[in-house]
Structure to design on (674 residues):
């Protein structure tokens, strides 16, 4: 009893809530969603509608039977057609819409060598024609095309079933009473029925029987007319009556199509998404059907027109002019050059916290209105469901990637895919950067060792070494003669005089014993050895100038400078280890993002280099659940990642677990202070 009472109370409460919602004045919330369907105001100035109307109005005079709206994918062809139908639907124009958008398009298959396996073209055409035929006949109810051989499942309402059952019952009662005249009297045997009433019931029964027989004959005629006899077989003989010709589906059922258009008012057939299959032969079939409809005595008075929405690249060269009698080119409403304007409008309308740089960077890759609307819809929903402190630029970027590459986005949740591989290969990028730094450190360290290993630390001693080596090659040496002046070793060490030695522009004075006079005398002799040979003797790897420069560098503090550079590089190494993917790509221009050919390298480079997508992508694709840390702790964590400073007295709860979730590199930033 208690349970029943609770159920009654719940129903009463629900009823009262519905009444309250119905009559209460609620301010409608403005939501940032946009429909992806074609709109009915897609022809702002009406130029496309005027062109289409002119072609249809003059179809007889100008012999226009096939009209095409051509434009790129997403240029707004469907919206123009929907706008036209809304504006001009009336007694003169009756529209029948056929769309192949729901028809399953088989994905291309490839063999082991990567070559595309071509499917059965005839089978594809047959399936397309069947789909067109189904959409024509399933557009109408059975009672509007009663003589069609295409029968559908009938759905009877309870009231109709009641009246049909009652009619059959009355018919069978009247028929039974006709053959058994006293049936009614036997049913009402306790009631006296006059002869007049009996006669009325008798003749009423006859009328009901005649009406029922007429109904049966009428139905029989329709059933018999729907029967097609292909073969007549008598014993072992067989006579072929129907033809089993190799016809297309549309040609085979052309009588059904003629019947349909003869009894239904349609005179404008709009066909969309037929270009998805890149089969021009179907246009030939439909053109032939259109010709038959306009030549048939049953339908020619309607002057039926077929209007197609096709892509510009469907036909090559001048091929499309042979399929269509009138072509209307559609200028795209949105492309990569103006999609930013629409994004800016959405930003201002729905107060999106997006940077202008992001919109300018990413809009170049959004060239379809449906894609733009869907990105905006998902961005709005994700923003409402996820953490409010998330960087809006990053959220919009990951949603854009999701819409452009949905398969790869889905793999992110399983730690797979192209984007995951790039982000996960951060260690590779770091290793490459550190290897470059290590090479520079090694180079500077070797220079320091060379400077520290110098055994001569002043230029005077260095020159003296070279002078001694020169003297060793000069027999009977007494002194150097430069500019006809005899100089001592101390004088030759001086810069101007030593330069003469380096250029081999000197003589030397030789002492010798003169046996004729039995005394010592001297004479000037030309140089026997070159300075470059002396350099080779002293050091094969370095020239005198290089050695002199080393001594000068040491005196000028070169070793200290190199050590400072090594320290800076060591700091750079430490900083590189904590860099994010975006910073790595910006700091190391030699590092290239290796992508699959199916992905747009420019888009991925922009998203990664600008930090729109990074290591924290998981925060932008999944909901947070309070377990190890609280929601306020998570807000603080997100703020650190986004470079936002929270107040120093921001309340943290599970402090012992929070540091475990924070990247070590984030501890080097001021944002960590609390």
């Amino acid at each position: 009893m208690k349970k029943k009472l609770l159920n009654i109370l719940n129903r009463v409460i629900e009823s009262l809530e519905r009444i309250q919602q119905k009559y209460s004045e609620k301010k409608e919330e403005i939501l940032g969603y946009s429909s992806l369907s074609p709109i009915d105001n897609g022809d702002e100035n009406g130029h496309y509608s005027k062109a289409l109307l002119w072609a249809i109005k003059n179809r007889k005079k100008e012999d226009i039977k096939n009209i095409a709206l051509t434009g790129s994918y997403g240029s707004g062809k469907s919206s123009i057609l929907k706008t036209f139908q809304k504006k001009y639907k009336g007694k003169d124009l009756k529209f029948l819409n056929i769309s192949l958008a729901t028809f399953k398009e088989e994905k291309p298959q490839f063999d082991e060598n990567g070559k595309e396996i071509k499917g059965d073209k005839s089978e594809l055409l047959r399936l397309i024609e069947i789909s067109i035929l189904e959409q024509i006949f399933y557009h109408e109810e059975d009672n509007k095309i009663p003589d069609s051989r295409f029968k559908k499942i009938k759905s009877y309402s309870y009231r109709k079933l009641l009246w049909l059952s009652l009619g059959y019952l009355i018919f069978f009662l009247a028929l039974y009473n006709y053959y058994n005249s006293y049936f009614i009297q036997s049913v009402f045997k306790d009631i006296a029925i006059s002869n007049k009433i009996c006669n009325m019931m008798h003749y009423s029964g006859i009328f009901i029987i005649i009406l029922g027989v007429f109904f049966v004959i009428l139905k029989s005629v329709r059933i018999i007319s729907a029967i097609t006899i292909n073969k007549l077989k008598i014993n072992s003989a067989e006579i072929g009556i129907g033809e089993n010709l190799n016809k297309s589906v549309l040609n085979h059922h052309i009588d059904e199509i003629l019947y349909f258009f003869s009894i239904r008012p349609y005179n404008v057939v709009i066909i969309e998404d037929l270009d998805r299959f890149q089969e021009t032969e179907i246009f030939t079939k439909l053109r032939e059907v259109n010709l038959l409809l306009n030549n048939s005595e049953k339908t020619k008075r309607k002057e039926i027109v077929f209007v197609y929405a096709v892509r510009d690249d469907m036909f090559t060269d001048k091929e499309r002019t042979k399929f269509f009698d009138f072509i209307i080119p559609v200028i795209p409403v949105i492309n990569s050059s103006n999609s930013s304007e629409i994004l800016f409008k959405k930003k201002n309308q729905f107060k999106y916290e997006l940077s202008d740089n992001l919109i300018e960077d990413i809009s170049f890759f959004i060239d379809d209105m449906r894609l733009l609307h869907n990105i905006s819809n998902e961005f709005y929903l994700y923003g409402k469901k996820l953490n409010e402190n998330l960087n809006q630029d990053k959220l919009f970027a990951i949603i854009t990637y999701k819409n452009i590459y949905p398969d790869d986005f889905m793999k992110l949740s399983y730690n797979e895919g192209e984007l995951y591989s790039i982000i996960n290969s951060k260690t590779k990028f770091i290793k490459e950067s550190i290897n470059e730094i290590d090479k520079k450190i090694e180079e500077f360290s070797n220079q320091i060792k060379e400077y520290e290993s110098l055994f001569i630390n002043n230029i005077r001693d260095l020159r003296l070494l070279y002078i001694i080596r020169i003297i060793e090659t000069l027999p009977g040496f007494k002194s150097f003669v430069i500019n006809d002046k005899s100089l001592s070793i101390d004088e030759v060490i001086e810069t101007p005089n030593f330069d003469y030695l380096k250029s081999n522009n000197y003589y030397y004075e030789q002492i010798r014993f003169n046996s004729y006079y039995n005394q010592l005398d001297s004479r000037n002799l030309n140089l026997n050895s070159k300075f470059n040979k002396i350099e080779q003797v002293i050091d094969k790897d370095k020239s005198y100038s290089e050695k002199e420069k080393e001594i000068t560098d040491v005196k000028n503090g070169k070793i200290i400078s190199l050590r400072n550079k090594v320290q800076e590089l060591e700091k750079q190494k430490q900083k590189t280890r904590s860099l994010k993917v975006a910073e790595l790509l910006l700091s190391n221009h030699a590092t290239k993002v290796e992508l699959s050919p199916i992905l747009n390298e420019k888009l991925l480079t922009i998203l990664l280099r600008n930090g729109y997508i990074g290591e924290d992508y998981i925060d932008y694709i999944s909901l947070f659940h309070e377990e190890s840390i609280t929601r306020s702790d998570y807000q603080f964590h997100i703020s650190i990642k986004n470079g936002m400073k929270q107040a120093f007295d921001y309340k943290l709860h599970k402090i012992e677990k929070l540091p475990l979730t924070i990247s070590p590199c984030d501890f080097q930033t001021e944002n960590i202070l609390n």
Remarks:
- The first strand starts at residue 66 and ends at 71.
- The chain has 27 helices and 13 strands.
- The two ends are 60 Å apart (CA to CA).
